[in-house]
Amino acid sequence: MGAFLKILILSISVAYIAVKWTGPSFDPASLKGAKVLVTGASSGIGEQMAYHYARFGAQIVITARREKVLQQVTEKCLSLGAQKALFIPADMSSESEPDKVIDFAVKKLGGLDYLVLNHIGVTRFAMWNGDVDHVRWLMKPNFFSYIQMAWRALPTLEQSKGSLVIVSSIAGKMSNPFAAPYTATKAALNGFFGSLTHELAMKKSNVSVSLCTLGFIDTESALNAVKGIITAPAYPASEASLNIIITGATRQPELFYPWFTYFMNLIKDWSPSLTNHLIRNSVNYNP
Ligand SMILES: *[C@@H]1O[C@H](CO)[C@@H](O)[C@H](O)[C@H]1NC(C)=O
Known about the structure:
Elements: H1 3-20, E1 35-39, H2 44-55, E2 59-64, H3 67-80, E3 84-89, H4 97-109, E4 114-117, H5 132-160, E5 163-169, H6 180-202, E6 208-214, H7 220-226, H8 237-249, E7 254-257, H9 260-270, H10 272-281
Parallel strand pairs: 1-2, 1-4, 2-3, 4-5, 5-6, 6-7
This protein binds 2-acetamido-2-deoxy-beta-D-glucopyranose (NAG).
2-acetamido-2-deoxy-beta-D-glucopyranose (NAG) binds next to loops.
GO molecular function: oxidoreductase activity
Keywords: Oxidoreductase, Signal
Family: Belongs to the short-chain dehydrogenases/reductases (SDR) family.
């Protein structure tokens, strides 16, 4: 794919986003002093979200497994303008640690305005080999910890009229080869938080839920995982992160990034055979 085409697609997506944002307008000042917890923040999209929140002057707690890296990200957040930046190392496949992270953030920040759930467990990008135990395990970080943390934080978010931001994937809307376990966990997230969104609305809850559907993003872990298999262009993590933050801040129920994931999702049920053809041709596979 030529650089020109890449730039063209990028500019169209920027234009699309610009038009879209003329709807509910984003006020950067609304994030000044906002109390934010971001998970999976040691690298990739989570790290970039931490930096954006920092630039907006938020108070941030970040979490991931690696303490050393969290410390470095925290320091950078402070230098970028975060009012507060704290970290807590945690393993999201544990049954107890997700709750501890919520309690830590609520205690240290004196409440919570944004719970941004973004972490994922490590999984291979390969055809499924029958390893049920791996799927059982991956559900813990990618799904069970999400619903556990959302429920734990809900009373605090009710008080602050806060927002729950779920980072999901186009894989949660349509299936892709080489990622069956991951796809299953993201579909579970979409299903669960879709139901929760209804129930909160019916209860006239103060809490907004934003479900973010991301395409192929240029994080180190994603690029490494699909190396040699997917050659499509990856979209910048920094822009994806900013989109997620704005979606949460403007209390939008959904985000599609890059923009064409919205159309992929629309087309999949109208034309399954075209969609399947495109999906299977987007990966290199020579048995
Ligand atoms: C919503 O927020 C108000 C405070 O502004 C609070 O009194 C009310 O209890 C909250 N609703 C719920 C369901 O907690």
